[in-house]
Amino acid sequence: MTENGQQHTTGLNTPPADDEARDAADDRARRFAAYRGAVRTLSGSRPPETLAERMARLTADAPGAYDLDDWPDLYGNGDGIVGALERRTAEALGTAAAVFFPTGTMAQQVALRCWAGRTGNATVAGHPLSHLEVHERNAYAVVSGLRMVHPTSAPRLPTAAEVYDLEEPFGTLALELPLRDAGYVLPSWQELESVVAAARDLDAVVHFDGARLWECTTHFGKPLPEIAGLADSVYVSFYKSLGGIAGAALAGAEEFVAEARAWRHRYGGQVFQQWPTALAALVGLDHELPRLPEYAAQAKTVARALREGLAEAGVPWFRVHPEEPHTHQFQLWLPHSPQMLNEASIRQAEETRTTLFQQWFEPDSTGPPGVAMTEVTVASPALEWTAEEIRTAVGEFVRRIDG
């Protein structure tokens, strides 16, 4: 309040906070309705669902994934559904054991903490664009007292030479496969083998942030057990790529997994019941995992058609990154504000019942000004699209940007 009792304003055109919240809620409801009403979706696994619809879908898919006459789990007991998921995960990755976690962030922190204790070195070599650095609020440092060094800041995984060139010893090399914030990029198989060998030469262990490791088999041309077998520990997600509700797993040797279980309890991750999450994860392993190579192949078609459609529409600058996707996910950059592109996306869904893109974002401080980025995820809805249909829909989208 001012001295004469009038309320301060931060600007003539600044709405009150409750009006901003109301506008945001209205925008969210409009976007939800538009995308939910679409009959064709290019990016994403499916249109938005209500809670009731998600529960109904889980119930419909569940009988083939697990015996629904079994008892619910209690604190992740090994003889229930959580234990079944852990064994299934270890089998898929070719590891001796796996332990379920409610979140990937918790799984990552436990893995790094365990390795710091075992190696006697609290330094982790990782990428500045990794999930550990960008999306976990520095938990490795704040919670566990670890520190990170960067072999490279280039938007790709480090090379063996860069690992050798680090000026100080490290106990763990953490590799995010694929490196999501750089565009879901992966090294070649030979490069991955070389960088792992470099860490071994330096007496370090290797941890894979493999939240999306499920997606990597097509690019590497290797089965999951061979990929996971390069690392000492692997974290995988059950909702990224597999369409689950939540949850993650940490996989590795029996002794390592046993220690991780103890730390899971200390971190508050031994939840009373997690059967819905475990059930959805088992469904994902059954339904989505076998289809990921098909999605990755279609992603190449989608990326090429987007480039062609944007060029035909006369867009002065754009970028599909990588030009040929390494997985079934990639980035698309356009020279407009996120607000303009989100409005065009919603209008296209409302007017044509076609959704091309989910949401556009401003780049972080390292990105160029005046552009926006969206992440394209090619899943089952995208399989029905031809290249010509994508090019046509892109042209319709571009006409709505300024219209």
Structure in words:
Helix 13 (292-312) crosses helix 15 (387-401) and helix 14 (338-352) crosses helix 15 (387-401). It is globular, with a radius of gyration of 23 Å. The strands form three sheets. A seven-stranded mixed beta sheet has the order 2-8-7-6-5-3-4, with helices on both faces. The chain has a three-stranded antiparallel beta sheet with strand order 9-10-12, with helices on one face. The chain contains 15 helices and twelve strands. A hairpin with a 7-residue loop joins strand 9 (319-321) and strand 10. Helices cover 43% and strands 12% of the residues. With 403 residues, it is of the alpha/beta class. It has helices at 17-36, 51-61, 81-93, 104-119, 131-134, 139-142, 160-164, 189-201, 217-220, 224-228, 254-266, 275-287, 292-312, 338-352, 387-401, and strands spanning 40-41, 97-101, 123-125, 147-149, 172-176, 205-209, 233-237, 248-252, 319-321, 329-334, 354-355, 372-377. The longest helix has 21 residues, at 292-312.
